[in-house]
Structure to design on (211 residues):
């Protein structure tokens, strides 16, 4: 198990990796890691993921008290809400990546599951993708809306905003997010009438084999 210094270094390195590969731009997006049952390590407000500094990362309690580091992102409240709702969540990645954000801006989506499965890897990594309604950034309504979905889903789309994904650690959350972004890219590239979606039996088989 990594200590806090190692987790800080991991967040800095992974944030830079996301930035360099174009998943994050400017000061958009945020990351967090559950340090223990009481504390969260999070990226500071307005911080570019490409220029994070280990010593400046924010530490807040699960109740929202700022303990150390720079002031946390205003969106740390919905990170806390997800951790409370989903004890299996140990890290969260929230980005405004191109293809998921494009998907979040589309009309007439199925908000219960925006992406019907058409690759096995989406099923194995994500499963389903519900979408919460649009709320202005920083709205107090975001946290409870995400928490409700996080009880059963590790990935959630935010209308006209982006996506939030959690995992068993930061790299797992990141891998889940990246698989989701690639799925959204394929979905946006292939005309819907040309997609061959997986059948219910095929999805059930993946869930039985890979859990």
């Amino acid at each position: 198990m990594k200590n806090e210094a190692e987790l800080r270094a991991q967040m800095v390195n992974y944030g830079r990796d996301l930035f360099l590969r174009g998943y994050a731009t400017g000061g958009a997006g945020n990351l967090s890691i559950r340090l223990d049952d009481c504390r969260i390590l999070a990226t500071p407000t307005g911080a570019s993921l490409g220029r994070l500094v280990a010593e400046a990362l924010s530490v807040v309690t699960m109740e929202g008290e700022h303990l150390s580091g720079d002031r946390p992102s205003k969106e740390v409240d919905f990170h806390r809400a997800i951790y409370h709702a989903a004890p299996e969540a140990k890290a969260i990645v929230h980005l405004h990546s191109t293809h998921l954000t494009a998907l979040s801006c589309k009309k007439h989506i199925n908000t219960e599951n925006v992406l019907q499965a058409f690759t096995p890897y989406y099923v194995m990594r994500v499963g389903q993708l519900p979408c919460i309604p649009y709320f202005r950034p920083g709205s107090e309504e975001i946290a409870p809306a995400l928490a409700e979905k996080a009880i059963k889903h590790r990935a959630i789309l935010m209308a006209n905003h982006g996506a939030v994904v959690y995992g068993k650690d930061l790299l797992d959350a990141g891998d889940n997010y990246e698989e989701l972004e690639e799925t959204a890219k394929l979905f946006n590239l292939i005309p819907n009438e040309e997609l061959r979606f997986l059948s219910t039996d095929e999805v059930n088989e993946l869930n039985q084999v890979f859990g």
